[in-house]
Structure formats: C-alpha cells, structure tokens
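User: Second chain of the day. Same drill as before.
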Amino acid sequence: MSSMEQISRTSIQAKAFEFALLELIYSKRDSFQPLWSVDSWAKFLIWLSLNCGLSGEKESLEMFAKAMGSPLTSRMRKIFFERALEDLSLHVMADPAEAQVLIMPIALDKMINDNDVVQALEMVGLSDKVSLSSAAWERHDSIVSIPWNVKSDI
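Assistant: Same format as last time:
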C-alpha cells in the first residue's frame, strides 16, 4: 500500500469516526438531565466511557478523558451545548461554563428580533434558565448575548 493510499485511508477513517461521534452526540444529548447543565455533560461522558467498555470508577473515567484528548473533548462539548433552529434560522450556543448564552443567525443577512429570541429559548428549554426580558440582553452586531439567571451549575 502506498503512502498516499494510507493517508487517504486514515483520512476516511477519521471522517467516518467524526461523523459517527457527532451523530451520537446529536441523538443522545437530550437524554441527560438536567439539560443545559454541567451535570448533563458529565453524565454523557460517563455514559460514553461505559459504552466504550470502561468502568465507572474515577481512574477509569480519568483515563477515558485523557485518551479522548482536549481538542476532541472541546469539540464534543461545543456540539453538545449547541442547537441549530432551522425554522427560526437561529443558532443557540448555551454552555453553562460560559457567562452567557449566545444566539446568532444561521443566515448572515438575518436580523434577529426579540420574539424570535424568546421563541428559540423556549424551543430549546432555556426559558427558565435565562431572562426572557430583552432589557437583560446585549446585542453585538447580529449576535444576542443573554446572561444565565443563576451560575450555580459550574
């Protein structure tokens, strides 16, 4: 096998792995309660490690985290706490480790109105975790940032 074939094979395997992992996150992220919490993220990682054949013991979980690596874990976490709302043409980023929830348009030319923001927050289950009053929001060009009500989950 030539080095070009090996590079191509490795690249295809990496893309297939990434696709499968992303689909797993998309399909399972709403299964871990409470949503939009550090606890839900931790439960997802524990579930994933158990399904990879590891035990639930601390050492095993630490080994899993180290084996996954920071870049992959960061990417997984980003996807875990993001939602794309095609009907509203909005993208919601709500990692509880961040100070604010971010809402931005999917289409660059879309202007975000307050009603769409409230509807997006309600659709993804964030309406009780952030202020629904636009007075508490900040606008940065086409991005709306909304502070969490309580930061007790970090």
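The chain has a mean pLDDT of 92.

User: Great, on to the next one.
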